Amino acid sequence: MDALTEDVVEHAHRDGRRVNAWTVANWEHAVAAQAAGADGVITDYPGVTDYPDATTLASPY
Predict the structure, then answer these.
(1) Residue 59 within a domain
(2) Number of folded domains in the chain?
(3) Residue 38 burial (CB count, 10 A)
(4) How far apart (Å, rounded) are the C-alpha atoms in residues 55 and 15?
(5) Tens digit of each residue's pLDDT (9 = 90 or more) over 13-57
(6) Quick one: which of 14, 33, 50, 56 could link to 38 by a disulfide (CB 3.0–4.6 Å)?
(7) Does position 61 have pLDDT exceeding 50, yes or no?
């Protein structure tokens, strides 16, 4: 998730592009993508994005 930063997302949005984070493996990375402003999160693991506000939850693992 190091490459997906707020600056990268803002630049893409200025160019009219949408940003999706692909193959997100855990909820911490899903939260980081959301915080950076990503438009979507794609994951191989159902449930990764099920938390209504994962920023307030402790890790389930």
Answers:
(1) no
(2) 1
(3) 23
(4) 29
(5) 999 999 999 988 888 888 899 899 999 999 888 777 776 555 554
(6) 33
(7) no
